[in-house]
């Protein structure tokens, strides 16, 4: 490790491929969370740190907006934005991705339409 904790590879933390589905991410998270739960190995700071890292990775990769930001920038400030703020911030990029035929856009399209109703008022 290079010691740079600010740019962890959350996909490697959860032991999944970069194109993993939400289901695979959830299943691996559960498996790893059980394996590294601090209650299983008491008084071990390394285990607690690993468990927290797994939770942090899952919090980002299980949320479509946070995963998108992470995939594009390699970093994600977990609690920086609400979902409508993410969608507003990345609206142009999401629409461009839709035009390029990138999948999972129906989720974004619906959220964008709902968000635009509030933002444009």
CATH topology heading of the largest domain: Helix Hairpins
The coarse overall form would be elongated
Low-confidence stretches: 1-5
Percent of residues in β-strands: under 5%
Helix and strand sequence? HHHHHHH
Number-wise, the strands total: 0
What is the CATH C level class of the largest domain, in words?
Mainly Alpha
Instruction: Round the Cα radius of gyration to an integer and report it.
Output: 17 Å
At the fourth CATH level, what is the homologous superfamily of the largest domain? DnaJ domain
Question: What is the CATH architecture descriptor of the largest domain?
Answer: Orthogonal Bundle
- Could you say which structural class the secondary elements and strand pairing correspond to? mainly alpha
The rounded distance between the terminal residues' Cα atoms is 48 Å
For the largest beta-sheet, the strand count, sense and barrel status come to: none
Count of individual helical segments: 7
Topology readout:
Elements (H helix, E strand, L loop, with lengths): L9 H4 L8 H15 L8 H17 L2 H10 L9 H7 L1 H9 L5 H15 L2
Helix pairs in contact: 2-3, 6-7
Pfam families: DnaJ (PF00226)
Protein name: J domain-containing protein
InterPro entries: DnaJ_domain, J_dom_sf
Which descriptors apply to this entry?
single chain, 121 residues, mainly alpha, Helix Hairpins, disordered N terminus, J_dom_sf, DnaJ_domain, J domain-containing protein
């Amino acid at each position: 490790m290079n010691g740079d904790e600010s740019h962890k590879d959350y996909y490697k933390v959860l032991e999944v491929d970069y194109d993993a589905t939400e289901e695979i991410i959830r299943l691996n998270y559960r498996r790893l969370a059980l394996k590294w739960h601090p209650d299983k190995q008491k008084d071990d700071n390394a285990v607690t740190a690993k468990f927290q890292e797994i939770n942090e990775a899952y919090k980002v990769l299980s949320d479509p907006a946070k995963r998108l930001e992470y995939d594009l920038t390699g970093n994600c400030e977990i609690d920086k934005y609400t979902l409508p703020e993410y969608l507003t911030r990345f609206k142009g990029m999401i629409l461009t991705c839709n035009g390029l035929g990138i999948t999972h856009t129906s989720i974004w399209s619906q959220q964008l339409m709902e968000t635009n109703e509030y933002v444009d008022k």
